[in-house]
Give the backbone structure.
Amino acid sequence: MEAQAAGQLGSQAAIAPATRIGPVTLTVADLDRQSTFYQDVLGLKLLRRDGPMVSLGAGGEDLVRLIEDRAAPRARGTTGLYHFAVLVPDRKELARRLARLYALRYTHYPTDHVMTETTYLSDPEGNGIEIYVDTPERGTWGVYNGTFAARAADGTLRSGRDPLDVEALLALLAPEDRLDGPLPEATKIGHIHLHVADLEHAVRFYHDVLGFDIMTSLPAGGAAFVSAGGYHHHIGLNTWLGEGAPPPPPGSLGLRYFTIVVPDRAEIDRIASRVAEAGLRFDRAEAGITVRDPSQNQLWLTHRPDSAAP
């Protein structure tokens, strides 16, 4: 599989353009500690607590679900979550998040991807998180001269991994702006990035079977990015832990499953047919289907974002 960009399938196979990423569900060892982090540091609201599960969001829809299992093993060097990405509605909100992290002295890594401005951090149990804002007016991201890079709006090539101009962002804040407020209701999960064992197999699954468009793929760089509807990426895939990385033991801490939200039940049925034609095992429920990618990352495909995998 050679480097490619903006690869599309035929109209019958392509996933619905309105498809997006929904709630991310994590298995955690300490529910109270994790729930506190996601509220006090990240800025999510507690929506529900039901026994060992907590649901958190910014408005009415769940964004993150935490399920406690104190006996769950912790796996290293396996496939699974690299990070999930929280998309905020504007640059001022990103500035507010950065200021909050600095006030709390919480370690994070502000980065300028040109087409997005972002910062990276981990929760107390090591799950990777990105907080970002889309800035398509500033440029694009792709493969240039055999490597991932960004092309700014003026045509200049940049690494796409430069340090973020934090000072310029923080200048958007006024003295009266609160730093401890919750994330705005327009906040959503923008994308998810996964460790996989085999990049070609992963791309075939997400592109050929599920129907996502290939936006950027560079096997030599060990990564590919796929999306629906022309977005820069809804799912990132990488082999940066090494080709052939094993899946975590069943029931491990970390990513339990992530949600792909499609517009309607008819789209679920179309995807289920393609999964069946590919000879892959899946489980059907009233609101959707669960299936694992070739690296054993579990997906819940649903037309009801308020639903959870059975």
About this structure: The CA atoms of residues 192 and 264 lie 21 Å apart. The longest strand covers residues 20-28. The domain at 4-302 is CATH 3.10.180.10 (2,3-Dihydroxybiphenyl 1,2-Dioxygenase; domain 1). The chain has a mean pLDDT of 95.
